[in-house]
Amino acid sequence: MKKIIILLIGTLSIIALGYIAINLSKSEKVSGDLSLIDFAIEDTASVDKIEIYDSYTDESFTVVRSPEGTWVDKNGNCVQQELPKIMLETFLKATLKGYVPKGATENMYNLLMAKHKAVKIYQHGKWTKTWYVGHPTQDHNGTHMLLETPDIKSDNPVIMSMRGFYGILEPRFHADAKQYQCSFLFSFDRKELKSVEVINRIVPEESYKVELTNGSYSVTSNGRPLNGIVQDNLIFYMNGFKNIHFNQPNYTLSDKDILAMKAKPADYELNITGNSSTYELDLYRRLDPETSPDTLLYDQDYLWGVLPHGEVVRMQYYVVGPLIEGQTVFVDKSVNN
Length: 337
Hints:
elongated, about 325 residues, eight-stranded antiparallel β-sheet, 19 strands, alpha+beta, nine-stranded antiparallel β-sheet
């Protein structure tokens, strides 16, 4: 009987110790040494909002999936669709590369919390995960990251990578609003156009105005009729005003530089009148960044464009050049010489 009692007490003790161990394990998951690694999101179609905060620049940006399925900013404005797609791809393919050495965990945690990009992910309108994206590993094939969910925030950074990708993940997330800005400027079908005027202050005789009157085009230069118009080439020129984009936002000129530039008349003015809308674009030559400040050489590839609301953007000459140099397209110069 005594042996049975001792055996029973021993069994109950083992059960009790097991229960205590389980609870201690749960407690440690809440407040102890824990490395969350479930970063990936399998159903990226359910992601409908992403908030990015960059502690390096103290900038924030939010993209939201519209009811139509396209991505917009929090105010409903157009954003470049490729950037949210890159983030979704990263969410889907994120994979654990390794753990931070135990002796370096605390220091890495403090470093990551000081400098990171916080990527807050919402699915079906609810916050589900936040990625804290830190600096790369020495081989630049891994990124130190930390995960937070509504239930718990990890206290141990881990090293993450991405299936099929060799490099660091931090550049795949941006909080700079300019990076998201849509580059579209205007689009006019030829049948919509009533007039196109180009004012060329560099070579004034190259200024011109094309007008549609009674179903046919007339072209003048500085108020005088321009001879030698090749009609087929003129129609080709008027077909060139569809889907015009700028190259990139201004990252070079300071506010002082912009004020000084705008104080002068634009080198070129492009004034477009359509049946239902108009567009005005001022263009300034851009000093070639590859030459010394003492050399007055202009960039052959880019111009500065001032949009109707005053924003300055960089225009690619390949895109806008054909629109402001129409005389080289539709005028037979031998007739006017």
